[in-house]
Design goal:
The protein is α+β, with helices and mostly antiparallel strands. It has 4 domains: about 130 residues, Macroglobulin (MG2) domain (Immunoglobulin-like, Sandwich); about 130 residues, no CATH class; about 200 residues, no CATH class; about 130 residues, no CATH class. Helices cover about 20% and strands about 20% of the residues.
Length: about 750
């Protein structure tokens, strides 16, 4: 494959497997003859001379095919890469030579299949430039020792294992947590740690215990497990812990080490050749490494995957509670998969994510921004993204209700909020402060110097800002003349409670009072009387950079999505069930169909272990079917390979399955059991896709309401909305298509 110029803002595939930048093949005897007039058939550059034959055309030696299996050749990390070389026919395999930056590394790429003429191996020793933002360029040359002209040259760009590659400068300050993760003192300012490997075994009483001597006698209480490939092995798990992209990862896989094991470890027959990354919950803007104890990979969720033979991996950087930065999270998954491929010696057959809440958010966003990293996703209690207006607006609404609970009864609050009773209070209490720059607890500092340097507008205006936007500043950009991240939040023109007004649930006066008092947020995330106004440029960056998920592109169209939840009858839970249908609406808009997604709905009495196990068993069949289908990736391919049971369903409170298309129809069987609610923005008139951060405006018009608004009430409404009210029939202000995938930040 010929080299193409680096595209800093767009990639259309997970990575180009080959990047040959120079063939370096001599073409002896080539002759260029200037045109002398007259006609030409274009078939030769040699003039015709009667009785004299033109010289034979030089034969170009066939090129070697060179692939980097573990990553794109221009996005390598850690100084090594798994290389596969296919030698052309006629080249003796023992004459293939491989060099890196002029040094012979042929021994690192042995022949693995003489029939297909394939050599494969881990090439190490790539140069690293920690100070470069564009990586360190290395030159790999594959040649034929017998024919000097037969050579292929490839450029390999390597980055430090500490990152970043694409996500832009790391946040600072940054506190290490290697000690708390059991990895000892940090080795450098990037919180690196020495990689550790330990073994655990599953007992016959269904617990994990350390296996102190992995090659010694087996414990009497050691259990066995049968993988989903039908292979029965001792239930021994190898757990590797280390640091990648400053996050602490845990990589677990079935293993059965023996005294005569080879020096270079490779997974045994217990691995089913598949990988499941776990994405953890919540959402925050912490300036630390995070803590995932080793038990986090060996809990009962981990047991579901490990017992079936999957390699199972997590990382503190794949924990939305750390930085809620999808570009950093996608980059981290890319680097982790690179490491797994290099260490295991082969590309996993497929990779399917799992995780709930903030873990669901990561799966949706990474699939959109980094297509190819996830072949299937299993989001639990879903949200489409972290940046949802409801998170902030519930606090504004609660501030209106609180002083006048006699007026704002629970029923009226539900009518305005759309959410089930208690949900807005839960959002306000748990997550609204994610936008407050002075939220010291959100920064997660332990070091006194850092804790004392948290932003305060009055006393420390240049301090560390503990908000979601600041940890995404590489995407959002900065306000002019400051280090502050631009903010895309806006509620100008939003008519809270509009549907409740039109239904007669609240009065005109209550509607006007609510919208007059609701207010917004200032530049630091504090409640103010005026409504929120988005920063210039922030909206466009949010959309074009995928922080707001459009569900467009191949990443989410061409993969199976098993959306699932076990909280459909919960009260006051932030994880409202309508989010599943909002996601479906965006899929439908982006792709014209949404049948690559199925929705499973259960009540709070359901066991998460049960439906996660059912989900991975279904996903395993689904992705295996797709792997056996040689057709190019497409949504058609996803849908035609659905196994039995891959359809919408709910389970009633006696655990009886009801197969029924998920909908908002209140008379549907599943919705009778588990009524669906809505959201404040949908009550205010937003369409189901619910992706407008700042609406375009239209003049106030009394004819737009189902109730009469006239006289002083109409005048007051026009005063409350002097610029107009939201026109939900138009796209959002600044709403742009996704700029591309594998984006390099900053965008501008």
């Amino acid at each position: 494959m010929l080299a193409t110029p680096r595209r800093p803002h767009k990639r259309v595939s997970p990575w180009p497997r080959v990047q040959v930048v120079a063939a370096g093949i001599a073409m002896a005897g080539a002759l260029i003859v200037a045109g002398c007039g007259g006609g030409s058939d274009g078939g030769s550059v040699f003039p015709f001379i009667p009785g004299v034959s033109p010289p034979p055309a030089a034969q170009t030696p066939a090129a070697f095919q060179v692939k980097t299996l573990s990553s794109a050749p221009d996005m390598i990390s850690g100084g090594d890469t798994l290389v596969e070389i296919t030698a052309p026919v006629g080249v003796a395999l023992d004459k293939v030579r491989v060099s890196l930056n002029g040094k012979d590394v042929t021994s690192q790429v042995p022949v693995v299949n003489s029939t297909t003429r394939v050599l494969r191996g881990l090439v190490t020793g790539l140069t690293t430039d920690a100070a470069s933002t564009t990586g360190s360029v290395n030159t790999l040359v594959v040649s034929n020792a017998d024919v000097a002209a037969q050579r292929t040259e490839a450029k390999l760009v390597n980055y430090p294992i500490t990152g970043p590659i694409l996500s832009g400068p790391h946040i600072s300050p940054y506190e290490c947590r290697t000690v708390q993760n059991g990895l000892g003192a940090a080795l450098d300012a990037n919180c690196s740690a020495t990689t550790q490997v330990v073994w655990y075994y599953r007992t016959k009483t269904n617990t994990f215990k350390p296996l102190a001597d992995p090659t010694g006698p087996r414990p009497a209480d050691l259990a066995e497990t049968t993988t989903n490939d039908g292979v029965t092995v001792p239930y021994i798990v190898r757990v590797e812990s280390g640091t990648i992209n400053r996050g602490v990862y845990r990589l677990a896989v079935l293993d059965n080490p023996a005294k005569d094991s080879p020096a270079v470890w490779k997974p045994g027959k217990g691995w089913n050749k598949k990988l499941v990354p776990y994405f953890d919950c919540c959402g925050s803007a912490q300036y630390n490494q995070g803590v995932h104890p080793i038990e986090s990979i060996l809990d009962e969720i981990g047991n579901i995957f490990l017992s079936r033979g999957f390699a199972f991996v997590n990382s503190t950087e794949l924990w939305n509670n750390q930085h809620a930065n999808p570009h950093l999270q996608g980059e981290t998954l890319m680097m982790i998969k690179e490491h797994v491929t290099e260490e295991f010696g082969e590309v996993p057959k497929w990779t399917a994510g799992i995780g709930g809440s903030g873990g669901a958010i990561q799966q949706y966003l990474i699939a959109q921004l980094y297509p190819g990293l996830l072949d299937g996703i299993q989001p639990i209690v879903s949200f489409p993204e972290t940046l949802m207006p409801e998170v902030m607006e519930c606090r504004l609404l609660n501030n209106v209700y609180g002083p006048d609970l006699a007026t704002w009864t629970p029923a009226k609050q539900v009518a305005v909020n759309g959410f089930n009773q208690g949900t807005c209070a839960a959002w306000d209490g748990a997550f609204a402060s994610i936008i407050k720059s002075d939220n010291a607890g959100g920064c997660g500092f332990l070091e006194p110097g850092n804790a004392a340097n948290v932003f305060n507008r009055a006393t420390n205006p240049n301090g560390v800002r503990c908000d979601l936007f600041q940890t995404n500043v590489n995407l959002l950009g900065k306000r002019p003349g400051t280090q502050e991240a631009r903010r895309p939040i806006d509620n100008i023109g939003v008519q809270y409670g509009l549907a409740a007004l039109n239904k007669g649930t609240i009065t005109v006066k209550e509607f006007l009072d609510l919208n007059d008092k609701v207010g917004g947020y200032d530049r630091d995330g504090n409640v103010q009387a005026a409504r929120s106004l988005a920063d210039d440029g922030a909206l466009a960056a949010t959309y074009s950079g995928g922080f707001k998920n459009s569900f467009s592109g191949p990443g989410l169209a061409n993969i199976p999505i098993i959306t699932q939840r076990g909280n459909a009858d919960a009260t006051g839970d932030i994880h409202d069930t309508l989010q599943d249908l909002i996601i479906r609406a965006r899929l439908q808009r982006a792709n014209g169909r949404s049948d690559n997604q199925i929705i499973w709905t259960l009540g709070s009495s359901a066991s998460i272990l049960s439906y996660v196990a059912d989900s991975i068993d279904l996903m395993n069949k689904w992705l295996d079917n797709m792997a056996a289908d040689s057709a190019a990736a497409s949504i058609d391919k996803v849908v035609r390979n659905k196994p039995a049971g891959a359809n919408d369903a709910c389970w009633d409170k006696s655990n009886k399955r009801i197969d029924e298309v998920a909908s908002q129809d209140p008379a549907a069987k599943c919705n009778v059991i588990y009524p669906r609610f809505t959201t404040p923005r949908l009550v205010a008139g937003s369409p189901m896709v619910n992706d407008v951060l700042k609406c375009q405006l239209k003049p106030v018009n009394a004819a737009d309401y189902s109730v009469t608004i006239a006289g002083a009430d109409l005048a007051r409404l026009q005063t409350i909305f002097p610029s107009g009210v939201c026109d939900w029939n138009k796209p959002g202000a600044g709403q742009e298509p996704l700029r591309g995938t594998y984006l390099r930040l900053p965008l501008n």
